[in-house]
Amino acid sequence: MSNKKLPVSLPLIIQPMFSKKMAIFIAFLHSTALIGIWLASLDMIIQLFLSCYVFLMLYFNIKKQLFFKYRQPIQNITLINDYFLFPDKTVATILPYVYVHSKIVILPLALKNKKTEILILFDDSLDKTTFHYLRVRLLHPITN
Q1: What is the pLDDT of residues 56-115, one digit of tens each?
Q2: Which has the closest alpha carbon to 121: 59, 88, 79, 60?
Q3: Cα first-last separation, the chain
């Protein structure tokens, strides 16, 4: 981390990338669900159906959370004061139930078309300086 300080009023550009911690987390959750399905005393047809469903959700979660498909283009979003600006000029406001920790940030965003988008960022999905500034900006929002 450099000693150069970023003024709080400047926009913060966030460029998420592939996260190993998110991949491990997704794999752990889905494998736990599969183990639970097969340990339950259910009919074999139901177990197969539920297992197929878990594999389908694994596929979509990997595409959405790890490779940022099926969602707004978030390869280069900008935090300006208390809202995010997407590359296609869509504005997303930050909902009040943000979770900020030293290892993970969970950002619920409200889009203009009444949709919500949840952006989950582990500390290895951003560079250290950007992750630190994001946490600081979310914990201590700018008051106008």
Answers
A1: 999 888 887 776 654 555 667 888 877 888 777 888 888 888 899 999 999 888 888 778
A2: 79
A3: 28
Measured distance CA(86)–CA(22) in Å, rounded: 22
Rounded CA separation 62/83 (Å):
26
**Looking up tokens 């940030």, which residue turns up?**
105
Q: 18 vs 53, 75, 88, 96, CA distance in Å?
A: 24, 11, 22, 26
In whole angstroms, what is the distance from residue 16 CA to residue 45 CA?
40
pTM value surpassing 0.90: no
**Residues 116, 106: Cα–Cα separation, whole Å:** 13
